[in-house]
Structure formats: C-alpha cells, structure tokens
Amino acid sequence: MTQLFRSLIFVPGNNPRFLEKAKALSSDIVCFDLEDSVPDSEKKTARNLIKNSLKSRNDYHSQIFVRTNSPQSGKILDDLKEIVQKGIDGIVIPKVNNISELKKIQKDLIQIEKKRKLKPIQILPSIESSEGVVNAYPICSFSKRIHAVVFGIFDLLNDLGVEYTKDSEGAKYSRSKIPVDAKAAGVSCIDGIWQDLNDAKGFEKDCILGKSLGYTGKSLIHPDQIELTHKLFAPTKSEIEWAKKVCEIYEKSTKSGKGATTVEGKMIDEVHYKQAKSIIDISKN
To answer: Is 2 contained in some domain?
Structure first.
C-alpha cells in the first residue's frame, strides 16, 4: 500500500496545450480524459493525442492514467486499443455499476497486454450510480489490478434525481459508504471533484470532510487545487511505516543481488520501492 492517491487531476485528452502543460504537474496521478470533457466528434482525435503523449512518458512527473468512456458507451474497446501501450500506468473506468462490466473490460485488457507484451496495468473503477454504490465492495475487491476506486458525485446525484448543492447532502450515505467498502477490500478511495474554482474555502472544507470520511485523496479539475490537497491528504503514520519497511527490505534484497522480494506476503519490486521512497521524502517535508 505504498502508492499515493492524494490527487488525481483530469486533463482533457483533446487539448494538446493541456496535455503538454501536464508534464509539469505535481499531482500523484495525471488522468488524460476521453470521457466527459471530450465531445463524441473528437474522441478519435483525443485517442491519438493521448497515444502520442504517452510516448513522452519520461517527461511527466506523475503517474499517467487515462479515463476511458463508460461501459455503457460501447467505446471502451476502441479506447483500449489506442491507449494501452508502454508508458500508461492505468485506466480510470467511469460509471462502473457491477463486476460483470469489469470482467469484460479486464478480458479485453489482458488480450491487448499479451499481444503487445505489456505488464498488467491498474484499473481504477469510478462509482457514480446507485447500482455502483450498492455493489461497491464487490467492485473494490474484484481484481488485484484495483488499487483504488474513485467516487463520482455528479452522475450519482443525477441518477438519484437529486439537485446538486455544495454541501452534497443528497449523497451523504453514498459518499460515506465508499471508503468503508474500499477499506474492507484493502484499497484506497479518491473523493469526487469540487466544481466551484472560485470557492477556495469551500474546496478546503470539502477536502477535510472527505478525509474525515476515510478518503485518501481528491479528484481535481485545476492545478491550483493540487498543493492544498497534498497538504490535507498527507501520508498517514501507517503508510510511512509501511514505506520504511519496504525500503529496508528491498535495499537488503538488492544488495544480496536478488532484486524483487516480498514484504508481509506482498511482492515488492523497483516500482514499489520508488513509491515508498517518495512517501518517506514527502513525510520529511
């Protein structure tokens, strides 16, 4: 559990300027978007732009995820064929309702990865419907690929027929349930976005509330939100202790010429080691 999920910022996949500027972002995850921010007429263009951006993976400081279209859209396979390549760390799947949807997506993903000789990438399901909330635990525990889930408030409220308000009272039960199910499944959970960019105090209050519910981070729509989010969702004591243990055991393993090893039954390699080092560095600031 050494991976940081404090911040996930969405970047429109059809905007070359934003994709380029994302190289300088300090968020834990930069998520190139193929869904809500991209009109149907520009999906193909966005896929190509993202595909080209992934070729410059080393220029980005953050993990790189791509939000595909929803299972209901019929566009996911076309998304995966274009964006699953070297350089991508994972995908965010919006509007996940049940594990049947995830089974089909994972099956397609495995075939593409095998054909292109790629390592398995992560899946972050986004729960945005009443059905998804009811099925949150099965979704969270579906696969080892799932290290975190995302909560999407706006589509959920629409599904419930509830008007959005800043206090999000209409989604109180759903927002509280997701972290419980995620924790039970042993994964992290990322809270929904704060839409009003002119209300910084409201954003801070919303982050504090999310953390008090058990969220490990926040979905973001603007770079100005990153710094405060990282401050409010700093690594926990248990995360820091785990990171120290990973570094200690992995360093002993590499000195003996073994490399990858296990910590408390979990496989640890160079990627986990770098993530653990990052957590320790952050905790010292």
So the answer is: no
